[in-house]
Design brief:
Elements (H helix, E strand, L loop, with lengths): L1 E13 L3 H9 L4 E14 L4 E5 L6 H9 L6 E6 L3 E4 L12 H11 L4 H15 L14 H13 L5 E4 L8 H16 L3 E5 L3 H7 L2 E6 L2 E6 L1 H14 L7 E3 L7 E3 L3 E9 L8 E3 L4 E9 L7 E8 L4 E6 L14 E8 L7 E10 L8 E14 L38 E4 L5 E4 L4 E10 L17 E8 L5 E4 L4 E2 L9 E9 L5 E11 L14 E6 L1
Parallel strand pairs: 3-7, 3-8, 5-6, 6-7, 13-19, 21-28
Antiparallel strand pairs: 1-2, 1-4, 8-9, 10-11, 11-19, 12-14, 14-17, 15-16, 15-18, 18-19, 20-22, 22-26, 23-24, 23-25, 23-27, 27-28
Helix pairs in contact: 3-4, 3-5, 4-5
């Protein structure tokens, strides 16, 4: 357990190093005092994680150094049950000239481990760091990520009762970051206390039971991570120069703040019947309507929405700036902004909606009005499509059978080779003369016959996708030399996507690319009754 009461730390700041000597000799004050941490109190129980957030210079790193004993407090109490260790700065406790092996003993000793203890855990430390091939090399040759691996491996194997983590983990790759987080979760489940400092707000929401916001060395708010992060967003908005940001109390749900030049008057969520609702079926059409009033003229107004789950994790957010929708308002103008969501493709559960009005990309530039948790709503399942998780992805499933064994010993009649061919991705292609390019083509068998695939039917009448190129006079300038085989037998009324490789003409100009189904050993193009695809190509 960690208990901190009224912790304060100040530093003397001098304009130059010489002022330190002048102050001693002349007995005259040449410094000014800077309070990095002031009257900070908190408690972290066994098995708990406290997340500390704040802007740069808020006092977070100083607080961790006080906890670790690197700095001594001017006043206040620090009570830690058992050993505390962790990661502050990457190179702390390392000698760059020593090898990784030597630094394990050096750093482990500084963390309170005996030589016998390090000997017993040496293999586990090296294995966790995954630096077996470099452990005898001097760490001055290590990358920052390798140093972080070694530092974390030593710290977590020192058997502490409390662990502090600064932003040092952020230099590691995603794989090792996740490995470290899993180890911290295991440490926490075994009764360890963790103090976690990060600018990754989602990580704070997920990993921490409570959070604390520091600003200029003082505790602004502590408690539920979601509420603390909302207040942090308010502080970011307050940074705008010359703006009076008002904090509106919303104890029933969340908080609202802003300079209120543009005020959010109402927010509605409508279902597919355009009825105001708090319950939506996953995948149904819904509308978010935001009514604003301009108390002053504004040339650039951004309206944004943010959907979060019950744990406070961001599920989806966007704004009119990202969607390239400019909004300008005159004084006393009312304006309704509607987000139409064709399919609310999120999983079953309870969610919150936050809305904001500001300038440019984010509310940090100038925050007009931000309202946290303006609406609570629930998403329920439907009978048509069942799934689990956060996202309703609606996959299209195709079952490919094994290689076809269908052999046709005689050609199919033309009416049994009718196809519906389409190219969805583009209708005009700009290409260099004499080059190969790929076109994705959808083919549907609209005949009454099974189409045999290439494979074991070599030398027989299998079906393939072909093409030909017509010039501006309609004359055929090129036949397919690379026909696309079907991966399996295609039954009537079934469709498949094929990547067709096409060779462009050698001469510049405009051409028509036309696709057709070709039966091996039989020469024909589009059959009567087929629906083919035509694409304009411009050869340069």
């Amino acid at each position: 357990m960690i208990r901190v009461e009224n912790l304060t730390k100040t530093f003397k700041l001098y304009q130059s190093p010489a002022d330190r000597l002048k102050e001693i000799v002349l007995q005259k004050k040449y410094h000014r005092k800077f309070t990095a941490v002031q009257d900070v109190s908190f408690e972290v129980k066994a098995g708990e994680t406290l997340g500390i957030i704040g802007q740069n210079g808020a006092g977070k790193s100083t607080l961790l150094k006080l906890l670790m004993g690197v700095l001594l407090p001017d006043s206040g109490l620090i009570d830690i049950s058992g050993k505390i260790t962790g990661l502050l700065e990457l190179t702390t406790g390392f000698n760059p000239e020593f090898s990784g092996m030597q630094n394990i003993y050096l750093n482990g000793t500084l963390r309170g481990m005996s030589k016998q203890e390090i000997d017993g855990k040496l293999g586990h430390i090296i294995e966790f760091s995954e630096l077996q091939d470099f452990i005898e090399e001097p760490i001055k040759t290590y990358s920052s990520g390798m140093i972080m691996r070694l530092a974390f491996a030593i710290a977590i194997h020192a058997d502490p009762q409390a662990f502090v983590v600064d932003e040092a983990l952020s230099v590691g790759d995603a794989y090792f970051q996740q490995k470290c987080k899993n180890k911290l979760m295991e440490f926490k489940e075994n009764g360890g206390s963790i103090v976690f400092v990060s600018h990754d707000l989602n990580a704070v929401k997920v990993l921490c039971e409570k959070a604390m916001l520091l600003d200029h060395g003082q505790t602004i708010e502590s408690g539920d991570p979601d509420q603390v992060i909302h207040t942090y967003n308010f502080l970011l908005a307050k940074k705008t120069k010359g703006q009076e940001i008002r904090l509106q109390s919303r104890t029933d749900k969340g908080k609202a703040y802003g300079n209120l030049k543009i005020e959010i008057i109402s927010v509605k969520m409508l279902n597919s019947y355009r009825q105001d609702s708090e319950v939506f079926v996953s995948g149904e059409r819904c509308f978010i309507q935001i009514m604003v009033k301009a108390h002053e003229a504004a040339e650039s107004v951004t309206l944004g929405i943010l959907i979060q789950d019950r744990f406070g994790q961001d599920i989806f957010g966007t704004n009119t700036h990202h969607m390239n929708i400019p909004i300008a308002l005159v004084s006393n103008q009312d304006c309704l902004i509607e987000y139409a969501i064709d399919e609310l493709n999120i999983g079953y559960g309870k969610y919150t909606l936050t809305v904001a009005a500001h300038t440019q990309e984010t509310h940090v530039n100038e925050c007009y009005h931000w309202i946290d948790v303006v609406r609570l709503f629930e998403v329920v399942g439907s009978r048509e499509f069942k799934f689990i998780g956060l996202s309703r992805l609606k996959p299209v499933v195709q079952v490919y059978s094994s290689i076809s064994k269908t052999i046709i010993d005689r050609p199919l009649s033309p009416e049994l080779c009718c196809a519906e061919i389409s190219v969805a991705e583009r209708d005009h292609i700009l290409i260099t003369a004499g080059t190969l390019f790929s076109v994705k083509v959808k083919v549907k068998n609209i005949s009454s016959a099974l189409w045999p695939a290439q494979g074991l039917a070599d030398g027989h009448y299998s079906i393939r996708l072909g093409y030909h190129v017509l010039d501006k006079n309609g004359a055929i300038t090129m036949h397919d030399g690379l026909r696309s085989a079907l991966p399996f037998d295609l039954e009537p009324e079934k469709e498949i996507f094929l990547d067709c490789m096409v060779k462009s003409p050698d001469a510049a100009g405009d051409y028509i690319l036309e696709f057709d189904m070709v039966q091996e050993q039989v020469t024909w193009f589009v059959q009567k009754g087929s629906k083919t695809a035509k694409v304009l190509i411009t050869v340069q």
